[in-house]
Design brief:
binds fe (ii) ion; 6-stranded mixed sheet
Length: about 375
């Protein structure tokens, strides 16, 4: 089959799956199962548009339960604008209506836009609406005005661990170990924060990282956990190299992989990238969550091969392309994007914004190129 024919088959298959998916959200697992039922799509699975068949239906043996994720609310003070406040409140109301209630809520960072204590307090206030236990990890927007002082006061330690129904959960801080780009240049806290809040800025450099101290902590935290039992790691940034120029990675991802490699059932749930995103390295799956605030475009050098990119959003509807996520622990972590789009998975060609999204591969980071 020529490359062109293959592409056409895949797109047709994609379209038939799209038609079948008419719920309030996109359930990855349902999506995969439907794709396998529709015979024509098996071909698509084999060249990477969907996760591989052997990536699903591996029993973890954990008791079924669900939890919710909200992140990247990027709140401004209400006096400035309430556009992002409205969306954070909508997500909180959605979580409150979950039946049965989720076991807990993870807030995945970037609660504030510019680290302003007013923004962080506003976020804490809005999230008080959710009665279930909440766990917080920080984003870079929460941190670099006062170097985490307000965030810590409100939410405690930026990294933590707990066990729940046979799963070890770990929250990592991937944002606080940025290199000091401000002292020599005598930047004000506002200037420091401004550079951190620029997606394609270069002044803050490769700020995303786990750090030697936290890697040791991670290793120690996992040392008493059986290698065959599930581990879920929450991080603001993805724990692999997706697109370093935007800090869509952690710079020490290789070391992180070394620590996690012996554990066969690791899932990384992350924020920061504000888009539908999926990747696998060895036995570790990484799943990018939606932001409530806005969605980022896919970077110019492509998405991981296993990602089914989301279609472009309606620029006239600021509730489009954003939302929150329901996650259910069953055989694996089943996740459902609660995207506030009216027509879920629009009947258009899958559009990564980068042209050829079937054959493209993730490029090595610039430093690793020959
Ligand atoms: Fe964000
Ligand atoms: Fe972020």
């Amino acid at each position: 089959m020529s490359k062109h024919e293959k592409t056409q088959t895949t797109l047709k298959a994609e379209k038939s799956v799209s038609k079948a998916s008419t719920g309030p959200g996109i359930t990855r697992r349902t999506f995969i199962h439907r794709s396998l039922i529709a015979g024509a799509v098996v071909g698509a699975a084999s060249h990477g548009l969907f996760p591989l068949i052997n990536a699903i239906d591996v029993a973890y043996g954990a008791e079924e339960f669900s939890f919710a994720w909200i992140s990247d609310t990027h709140l401004y003070p209400k006096a400035l604008n309430t556009r992002f406040v409205d969306k954070a409140e909508r997500a909180v109301n959605d979580v409150k209506e979950m039946k049965p209630a989720p076991d807990f809520l993870i807030f995945g960072g970037d609660l504030a836009q510019l680290g302003d204590p007013v923004e962080l307090q506003l976020g804490a206030e809005i999230l008080k609406g959710v009665a279930v236990k909440k766990h917080f990890i920080p984003g870079e927007h929460d941190w670099y005005l006062d170097m985490g002082e307000t965030w810590r006061k409100l939410f405690g330690n930026p990294n933590w661990t707990f066990d729940h129904k046979g799963v070890r959960f770990i929250g990592l801080d991937t944002i606080s170990r940025g290199p000091d780009y401000w002292s020599a240049k005598k930047m004000t806290p506002q200037e420091r924060m401004g550079h951190m809040a620029t997606l394609d800025g270069s002044v803050a450099g490769p700020w995303a990282g786990v750090g030697k101290d936290q890697l040791q902590w991670l290793s120690k935290t996992l040392s008493d956990w059986p290698k065959d039992k599930p581990v879920i790691v929450f991080s603001h940034n993805p724990l692999y190299e997706y697109y370093p120029p935007w800090n869509f990675w952690v710079r020490d991802w290789r070391e992180v992989q070394e620590v996690l490699k012996p554990y066969g059932k690791v899932t990384n749930i992350h924020g920061h990238t504000h888009q539908v995103l999926y990747n696998e390295i060895g036995t570790m799956r990484s799943i990018g969550m939606l932001a409530t605030s806005w969605n980022w475009p896919y970077p110019p050098e492509g998405v991981p091969a296993l990602t089914t990119p989301m279609v472009r959003v309606d620029p006239g509807d600021h509730f489009d392309g954003v939302g929150w996520s329901k996650l259910t622990m069953t055989d694996k972590v089943a996740y459902k994007y609660m995207m506030w789009r009216k027509e879920v998975f629009a009947e258009t060609q899958v559009d990564s914004g980068t042209g050829d999204n079937i054959n493209q591969i993730l490029s090595p980071r610039i430093a690793d190129r020959p």
